[in-house]
Amino acid sequence: MSKPKTLAFAIYDSQGNFKYYKEQITSAKLPKSVHFYLDANYRTNVAYKEKSKFKSKTKSFPVTLREIYSVLDAENEITYEVKVKKEGKNYNLIFDKDGNLTRRIVME
């Protein structure tokens, strides 16, 4: 059985100075506060009809996580980058090492 491959890369500037190292991780490696934030802000609610009663109900579906990265920068600071999709829009969420949201970028 072969080991799964990890997607990772390092970025350097034109003078060869290290900028950051980015490694794809699983959601299990995210701080708990990131999970709480995602559940509170990116959980999607979808109305559906239950076959037996024919009444509309709202059911909550988990966030669609596209990609998750751990990022180590040149100052040895760790951040987390989470790409999510909600209501047809893609977002790139940046969290600090403690799991606090620092930036939210809407991707076009």
Structural summary, described in words:
The protein has 108 residues and is mainly beta. The protein contains 1 helix and 8 strands. The strands form 2 sheets. A 6-stranded antiparallel sheet has the order 1-2-5-6-7-8, with no helix packed on it. A two-stranded antiparallel ribbon has the order 3-4. Strand 5 (64-73) and strand 6 (78-86) form a beta hairpin. The longest helix is centred in the middle third of the chain and has 10 residues, at 32-41. It is globular, with a radius of gyration of 18 Å. The protein starts with 7 loop residues before the first strand and ends with a strand. Mean pLDDT is 82; it is low at 46-52.
> Which blocks of ≥5 consecutive residues have pLDDT under 50?
46-52
Main β-sheet: number of strands, strand sense, barrel status?
A: 6 strands, antiparallel
Structural class call reads mainly beta
Q: What is the approximate shape? A: globular
Order of helices and strands: EEHEEEEEE
Helical content class? under 10%
The first-to-last residue Cα distance is 39 Å
- The largest beta-sheet arranges its strands as 1-2-5-6-7-8
Give the rounded overall mean pLDDT: 82
Number of strands: 8
| Alpha-carbon Rg, integer | 18 Å
